[in-house]
Amino acid sequence: SIVANYLILNTGEDKTKKFKHTLMAGAGLKLPTGEYDEEDNGLIINRNFQLGTGSVDFIISGFYTLRYQKVGFNSEVGYKINTRNKYDYLFGNQFHASTRFFYWQNLKSLSLLPNVGVYYEQAAPHKDGEIIQANTGGNALLFSAGMEIYYSRFSVGFNFQDPFKQNYNSDDIAEITSKDRMAVSITYSF
Fold this sequence. Notes:
Low-confidence stretches: none
Order of helices and strands: EEEEEEEEEEEEEEE
Largest sheet: 10 strands, antiparallel
Number of strands: 15
Radius of gyration: 19 Å
Shape: elongated
């Protein structure tokens, strides 16, 4: 995936403002780099377990941060519009939103932002041709905690998520549940 974000508003350097605001919007592409057509004994492996989707998908996102002195909150939304792959399979479009409260701490040339919040995700069911696929789609609400570390134009983020409410589209044969998650991110700002 590659996403470019555009800074629309940033009052972070304005010393006359008590509240600091940052607003960004972004767009990008997810390219079909992972294998999709993996087979086991002549049958395609469950599409959710493939390394890729086999499709080019579109990503849009938005970010807003409000900070007062060292305390603030950040909200993020994103939507991924999926396209059909060469097998006429369509993964459901995906939406996510999060809100995190953070504390800004400067240590010499580093800035640390420990954070805590909630994360929501929703996915539409998949389609094989025009047939809606069982055990796909649904939504979940997760508790989130993490740390972001900033140095110059680089940042590294660590995040842990624990689901506390979930509703995935399961049939009578399978039960789908989300487990704890961990993520690491590296960002360079131009």
